[in-house]
Design goal:
about 70 residues; mainly beta; 7 strands; about 0% helix; globular
Length: about 70
Amino acid sequence: MKVMLRQNATGHLMVYIAKKDLEEEVVSQTQGSEGKIFTLANGWELAIPDLPEPLKLPQTIEAKRLA
């Protein structure tokens, strides 16, 4: 699914998922076998392979929701 990464006014990383009309704050980031894994405030985990460093925001990328 396509997601948009951006920073909010307080500098926290936010994820917006247009198909779900969902915007959540990233509460943790880890490195996994499927790439960078973002845990959102609602409990969802998104795997983002090949995320470029340093992160340039805002940007739209492909992510996979982990079960």
